Write the structure tokens for this entry.
Amino acid sequence: MTTELFDDAPDFEPSAISDRSLVTAQNRSREIEEQIAVDPSQFRVLTGDRPTGRLHLGHYLGTLSNRVRLQDLGVETMVLVADYQVITDRDDISSITERVREVVTDYLALGIDPSRSTIFAHSAVPALNQLMLPFLSLVTDSELRRNPTVKAEHEATGGRPMSGLLLTYPVHQAADILFCKANLVPVGKDQLPHLEQTRVVARRFNERYAGGRQVFPSPDALLSETVNVLGLDGQKMSKSKGNTIDLAMTEDETAKQLKRAVTDSDRHITYDPEGRPEVANLLVIAATLSGRDPVDIASEIGDGGGGGLKTLVTEVVNEHLRPIRERRRELEADPGFVAGVLAEGNARATEIADATLTEVREAMGMVYTP
Ligand code: TRP
């Protein structure tokens, strides 16, 4: 084995992700957006979520609406329900089937169109997972240990010993992206190290196992200007904190959730993200969903206080989500359809993965059929 192969190990210290590489990625993303507008057919997007529960407004504003936008622009989109990623850092998988169904239902309700996009699950695509083996041979354990996202995810488990799957999940993500030769991955900036790891795997595979042939493309991150909203208590929006507005909630449940939202005692509503982060967060939610300016909404509420603000946000959220929720109820009444969409997506992803794995074995001289 050559040690030079690992000499290109990127600097994965978190500081390296700031400034220069962030600006590079942002500029590249702008270029790509222009290319998409001209010719969307040169791109294949791979995105996905861990099925850890129902999707909420944070997902919707942060990634899902962007996904639907790309699909509607004509970019071929592969959407992964990353079920194997659920077991990186937790023991309880009792409700995984149900969670997967919820996520697929959410996708369909908000406009992922199965005739244009492929929705599939990790566990149903064996050849995707098998790519993990050659790929693992292309990374070092210290690269994985230095990965800031792995570190952050591990810290979030509060002292649980790190599983081998958590340590190696950036390589699994490389398989998610490369099995279908996706060249575009919409991500938040915290996920840039993963993309860098994927590019490293692709490059090393091509060099080490394919004699320099481009078996795998080098995918780009697409950093989109999405909105990052907080939960109703001002912390990160997350199911486990009970501070979410789920796509699947009823209008009454939404109103109840929002009544509990944290605001402050100043009755005069102003848009001040630094000084009044919780109030500002609610204003941003209303502004984004209604296409208005948060400052205008604040002055409209004026002395209406937290109560006035919550009433307005409830109306805007419920109005915006009404058609999505209606569609969701229809889908819930037709579980056979939802299951069928996933089965078809799994079959299509399997076809793609099988073809890629064949190519990989050929490149590696591991084909034994006479
Ligand atoms: N890690 C992503 C999440 O936490 C899900 C995911 C799995 C993913 N594999 C991916 C995202 C590949 C982009 C590319 O939701």
